[in-house]
């Protein structure tokens, strides 16, 4: 990633149909070994995935989110975009100091459907379990008992 020229990054974005509304956007993370992800994240991703490079939405989202910037990422259904925003949230939460039980959440992810909320919860659990993180899925129609951390 760091070794890619500006022209190469722009060619990657163009080839993948990426539209940017701002300048000075961080270069995408095009390979896991180029990232500074914690070991627990790398191991979990490599164990659950059968590829060596992130999808386009992941590559772009991770570099932006991990630079503490806001973004809106839009990708086609089925493009496995959940990891694009769950992974930065898990990394952010894992880097926080210990919290007291009465403290509120560190990160909140909102989904438009109960099924997607559950899928996000499962993914966050898979990634966060290795770091001792807790998460809750609060979805309409589910029992209240399971919606408390």
Automatic annotation (TrEMBL):
Matching entries from SUPFAM superfamilies are given as: P-loop containing nucleoside triphosphate hydrolases
Signal sequence span is: none
> Recorded GO terms, molecular function?
ATP binding; nucleic acid binding
- The DEAD/DEAH-box helicase domain covers 60-145
Protein name per Swiss-Prot or TrEMBL: DEAD/DEAH-box helicase domain-containing protein
Q: Which organism is it from?
A: Rhipicephalus sanguineus
